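fwd from M.: "can u put these together and see what the complex looks like"

so here's what she sent:
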Amino acid sequence: MTIALLGSEDILAIAGDLWASYLGDEPLPSVAGLVVPEVSATVSVVGEWNGLVVVGTSVRGARLVGSVLLEIDEADLSDGDVNDAFGELVNIIGGNVKSVLPGPSSLSLPLVSAGAVTVSERGAAIVAEAALEWQGEQFEITVWSSIETKGA
Amino acid sequence: MKILIADDSKVMRQIVTRTLRQAGYDGHDIVEAVDGKDAFEKVVAEAPDLVLSDWNMPNMTGIELLDALRGAGNAVRFGFVTSEGSPEMRGRAEASGALFLIAKPFTPEAFRDALDAVLV
């Protein structure tokens, strides 16, 4: 029997801490698949455990994150500010996810891209996913694992 | 006192600065560095009293920065502020001479717990 290394409740707990610490109020649990992400941020974990952590949201969701983290009005945000803030969000979630997985592994720098991230299911599987709602916007967090990874 | 904050994220440098203030460490000179290489050069040039460094950064990582500083004979007080807080990472940080590792997301209390012990 394979023991699950990570569940949606773990992701929600990590996200809850993150939002409470930096974004002022905790998000509400939501349902995955309600919206197609317009902005995605990813970090890779490579080593003993191999996989990808993805956070997707709307353009407004990413801009709200930037506005709150930088404490400036949305209108004054540059694209670089939004990418920096949303990338840091996935960096923190990815680092905390990595901490509960087998090591040693390395965490990549974050990447932010337009649209949804599609991972080929030929070589990877979803280990855990969670969705949350904050300020009326949906945030989806997905942890993909290489299917050759132990414990996937 | 002069505190150098090394993080490739401008957002996180601002959050660290803000949290220092919330933890009661305001009124200090803050120097910012955008990666490990920039931090190494600014430690040499600015001689800060404390370095708060991210771990994963381009050009030179935080652990490479710490090892380079110690290799150059620089004993500046050094702590990590990173998204990775596993026992393995904490062990590596301590073995290289870091005084503490504050995991993101952090609170002002976490800063106080780490800094009160080393800023005497």
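replying to her w this: Strands of chain B lie at 2-6, 29-33, 50-53, 77-82, 100-103.
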